[in-house]
Amino acid sequence: MKRSVKITLVIVSIILIAVAFLGYFAYQSIMGSEPISGKQGTIPSPMATVPPITTGIADWTHWRGDNFEGKSVTTGIQTDWSKGLQKLWQVNYICQDKGTASWSSPVVQGNRLIVPGRDEKNDLVFCINADTGELIWKGSYPAEAGNSHGPGSRATPFINENHVYTFGRSGDLICWQLEDGKVLWHKNVKDEGGVEPTWGFSTTPLVLDDKVIVQGGGKALILAYDKLTGNLIWKSMEGDAGYAAAITMNLGNEVKLLIYQGTGLSCLNPKDGKMLWTAPWTTDYGVNATTPIVSNDIVFHTSGYKMGGEALKVTNNGYTVLWKNNSLEAQHSDPILIDGYLYGYSGESSNMHGKFKCIELLTGKEVWSTGDIGQGTTTYVDGHLICQDIKGNIFLVKPSPSSFVKEGEIHAAIEEVKNPAWTVPVVANGKLYLRYMQQLVCYNLL
Question: In terms of CB atoms within 10 Å, which of 90, 144, 359, 441 comes out highest?
């Protein structure tokens, strides 16, 4: 064989191997599952005596806290991070076994912290003492689940009165008794014609008046169940489910329901599910995963995959587009609105080299952009943003439209992070809770 032919074959082989590797990497980033890394603990026995339910002055009882804005009402936080923060407790058992990735963020009411987990065959729900890290109760139910980015829950629970509602990636909507974990009712959206989206059911339940509302997809795009009995009250629309939480907005004296579904942002009457209007918005993968932001009569929404963002001016009769551009492309990291400016991460959520931006809400103008804190998620508390990058480092940022101001940072606030740490930081009653798969870490912020 001629030397030139051998060289050509070698080059072709290298190219084929490179293409195969890149194809595998692309598949893993889209459809693969992140293996559990780091220490995995054994689930402990629950506390011998179930403590009475308490409430705090700054509880975080559902996705994005009060008004779904990503803001904690905790005040008086420590802003000098030069010596770190005091770690109060840590558990490492929320996900069991290696292939059980789960991403839901915790919710907190007083001494009750609720966080979903997973083992090989079951969805798990843990009630942990928010102050001490002791296990109060554990719930479980068998659930067959796909493995795109893990079989565990994505949706954050919702605490309402003495109940907590969870929604698993396989479509199981369950009402638990907050005190002791007793199951009060259990429904699956597939029984109503729901169809699981590619990356699993992910919409955080919304408890509104007497209803609990989720996205089911298929012939049951949006469903409302009676929050006490689980009986179906209404179902509305057909199509692909999105991955974002339902929220409300007030127009005059009327409450509207906003649903960021697979092909657009829809506005419904929450009483009967009647669709009022839909603003079309379809990404390459049908991934609308961020929470819409409401400011009076303006609604902002954003998606990744080079879709960008759009601001709508809403009336009782419909909407008009204020602006649409690519200044902010949030894949599944929710921006936060502060004094007329949006602060948030833009770009691919698994890419460490993301951008953190400040955008003017009324115009869509990019005010500033920085790559200093990578890609991640953010929460607002006491005049500051706590930003967590996908490697488990945290940063204290002072939001300002003038410039990016980083006031502190703590490296490896979550230990042994091998894959993207996507779960948003939660601040409740003076404590910071960070979750990465099987790990849940509690720091004192005061």
Answer: 359
